[in-house]
């Protein structure tokens, strides 16, 4: 499972780091982080797909969000027993806290 998450997290981190730095033109002397390369890459994608530049950027964002939900669902499914145990422990500690609070209240005279 950790390899699965690594194979998802590493490319996503690299892509979004490049996207953020190149979008704001923080290139630190590297040409691949410049805004010109950013526009060129997304312009090539737009030409290949026959769509607008803005459509490509929003498509990447939507795809990454969708992928993140799918990965989260897979992880939650694989760890469902641990999540259920945590939830039951949490609920029982909340119930114990409420009963302790009710029993410790002294009636005013």
From TrEMBL:
The answer to keyword Transmembrane helix applying to this record is yes
Q: Does the keyword Transmembrane helix apply?
A: yes
Highest taxon, organism lineage: Bacteria
Task: List, as start-end ranges, the regions of compositional bias called Polar residues.
Answer: 98-109
| Pfam annotation, one family | DUF6105
Q: Enumerate the residue ranges of region (Disordered).
A: 90-109
Sorted alphabetically, the keyword list is: Membrane, Transmembrane, Transmembrane helix
Chain segments annotated as transmembrane: 7-24, 56-77
Name recorded for this polypeptide: DUF6105 family protein
Q: Which organism is it from?
A: Ahrensia kielensis
């Amino acid at each position: 499972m950790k390899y699965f998450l690594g194979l998802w997290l590493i490319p996503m981190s690299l892509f979004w780091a490049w996207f953020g730095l190149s979008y704001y033109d923080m290139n630190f002397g590297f040409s691949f982080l410049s805004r010109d390369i950013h526009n060129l890459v997304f312009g090539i994608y737009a030409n290949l797909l026959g769509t607008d530049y803005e459509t490509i950027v929003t498509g990447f964002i939507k795809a990454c969000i969708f992928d993140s939900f799918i990965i989260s669902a897979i992880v939650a499914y694989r760890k469902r027993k641990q999540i259920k145990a945590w939830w039951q422990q949490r609920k029982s500690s909340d119930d114990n806290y409420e009963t302790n609070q009710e029993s410790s209240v002294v009636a005013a005279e």
